[in-house]
Amino acid sequence: MTDVNLYPVPAEDMITLEYNLNKTGKVRIVLLDIHGREIDLIFSGNQQQSSYIRKFSVQSLHNGVYMLMMQTDDFTQVRKLIVNHK
User: Fold this and answer.
1) To the nearest whole number, what is the mean pLDDT of the chain?
2) How would you classify residue 19: left for phi > 0, otherwise alpha for psi between -120 and 50, otherwise beta?
3) Comparing C-alpha atoms, which of 61, 4, 50 is closest to residue 29?
4) How far apart are CA 42 and CA 49, in angstroms?
């Protein structure tokens, strides 16, 4: 997997995750709090080799710093997410 992008940061209500899969396989995307505890499962399942865009709401989250972790069979990447409701 390459090119994992998360925007906008900071986010007010929606966040967009863009990623490319170099091969077909299992994908798991979770939202973690600052202490590494899983607070939301965004996606878990098999995906084909392709480019993907996922949007999800952060309206139910409190202002603060979170981590988005994306895992495949041979890849793990973590991106910082800041939620700042105005």
Assistant:
1) 94
2) beta
3) 4
4) 19
CATH number for the domain whose boundaries are 2-83: 2.60.40.10
CA distance 70 to 43: 9
- Residue ranges per structural domain of the chain: 2-83
**Is 5 buried (19+), middle (13-18) or exposed (0-12) by CB count in 10 A?**
exposed
Whole-prediction pTM: 0.91
Residue 60's identity, in one-letter code, is S
β-pairing, 75-83 with 51-57? unpaired
- Does the pLDDT at position 47 exceed 80? yes
